[in-house]
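User: My instructor asked us to take a sequence, write out its structure as tokens, and then describe one feature of it. I'm not sure where to start. Here is the sequence I was given:
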Amino acid sequence: MPALYLVRHGVAQDQGSWALPDEMRPLTDFGWQQAVMVGDLLARAGVTRFISSPTVRCRDTLLPGAHLVGLEVVDDRQLFETNEPRDRAASLELLKLLAATGLEGGIERAALCTHGNVLLPLLSALDGANPGRCPKGGVWRLELDRDRARVAKVEYLGRLHPDSGVWTNP
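Assistant: Let's start with the prediction itself. The structure tokens for your sequence are:
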């Protein structure tokens, strides 16, 4: 079954103490630990396309997984944090565009890394997703039907938790 893996970037440097442009804000040491765990999960899942918001923290969250399978991370402005969907219809349309981009050319599994304000509306628009919240470093698997026109199943796969340092899936 074709699948999209939606990832929220790992824990990044504090925005308030970051003096450079926000797009350049990097992951913390713990954010890098999350990225390594996410990368291992994505590589084991057979992901063969890695697409990211063009921010350092999103790109770096996917980098370990892409490197594990010998691929590069590709930027897509559709995933940038200023592209927050305004309503359910806009969320579903964005998800349709992202699926078309991620799974084009016969790709069966793609990972997309974005920001909480983009990811939460996408997940909220899906029946059965009920995300409630969208933690940093979290990973969701969206299984698509055979014709890739509909999300058949949504599953939260978890994240490396900052308090315990353990992969959790509440």
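For the description part of your assignment, you could build on this observation: Residues 5-13+22-144 form a domain with the Rossmann fold fold (CATH 3.40.50.1240). Try explaining in your own words what that tells you about the chain.
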